[in-house]
Amino acid sequence: ARLLWDDKFLYAFINVEDKKIHSPFKKHDATLWKADVVELFIDADKNRRGYVELQVNPNNTQLDAWFPKTRSQPSDMEWKANMQSAVFLREKEGWDVEIAIPLVAVKGNDKSMKVNIPPLVGDQWRFNIVRVDYEGKKAIASSWNQITYRDFHALGRMLVGVFGNASGATKAELPTDIKLKTADPVNGATKVKITSELPKSK
């Protein structure tokens, strides 16, 4: 997966390997997670409450939800991210999804959220991307950072994205023992470096 940005949108590209692509859901905000789908979680102010969940399935059907606090309380399914998405199916190989998310959408319904829109170079948001693949009735989940199948929303397991300029440079001072994953610039969009805040296992 890759993340890019400009002054209006956050762009996500997810490449999925899957020999049997299947999802019956074609209605917006349906239960997309009960079949093949990709999910993107964004906690822009990193306070581990108040975050957005965005989903796109192989039919290019979308789900967008705003969680005012945590998963333990109901989400706002009336909220709309106004994202744009496109899906390319690769027969017997998999599928690719591209998503353009308006930057203002990361605030959900919390207009007072202390997040720079557009971000400044060096700003940090928390992310995770989850892919769900169903083989018959068996679901398999994979993600940017390790989660349990019981909790895709694990806010404490999200990675930290650091916004960089067109050359990938950031103003953020990062620990030297953190691995970086850098997206390549496409069409003038800017890089996002993905870092982990999780401590090393002893």
Explain this structure to me?
This protein is mainly β. It is built from no helices and 12 strands. Strands 1, 2, 3, 4, 5, 6, 7, 8, 9, 10, 11 and 12 form a 12-stranded antiparallel beta sheet that branches. 36% of the residues are buried.
Q: Which structural class is indicated by helix and strand composition?
A: mainly beta
Q: What proportion of the residues form beta strands (DSSP E)?
A: 35-45%
The main β sheet shows up as: 12 strands, antiparallel
Number of strands: 12
Quickly count the helices: 0
Q: Assign a percent range to the helix content.
A: under 10%
Which features characterize this protein?
202 residues; mainly beta; 12-stranded antiparallel sheet; 12 strands; 0% helix; 39% strand; disordered C terminus
Can you give me a brief rundown of this structure?
The protein has 202 residues and is mainly beta. It has no helices and 12 strands. The chain has strands at residues 2-5, 9-17, 37-43, 51-56, 62-67, 84-90, 94-102, 124-135, 138-143, 159-163, 181-182, 190-195.
List the helices and strands and how they pair.
Elements: E1 2-5, E2 9-17, E3 37-43, E4 51-56, E5 62-67, E6 84-90, E7 94-102, E8 124-135, E9 138-143, E10 159-163, E11 181-182, E12 190-195
Antiparallel strand pairs: 1-2, 1-12, 2-7, 3-4, 3-8, 4-5, 6-7, 8-9, 8-10, 10-12, 11-12
